[in-house]
Give the backbone structure.
Amino acid sequence: MKCLDCGTEMEQGTVEGYAQGGSHSYEFTADTEKKKTGIKGFFSRKTVTVLQYPGEQRAWHCPHCKKVLMWMDAEE
């Protein structure tokens, strides 16, 4: 897979998550949703919950940019 930033071929591997007291989750919000303002932005902004849980996740690492791209399940 090519890096989305620089185009360098990325290394495929895994990322391991470790829970440290309590459950954790993150939300993904598209840039187009972030641009919504006022009441429309406050009440109708759509997000996708990304679960953070122990286990291995498929990932790619760019040796040039030092970035990691993870392939994770979303809770929808």
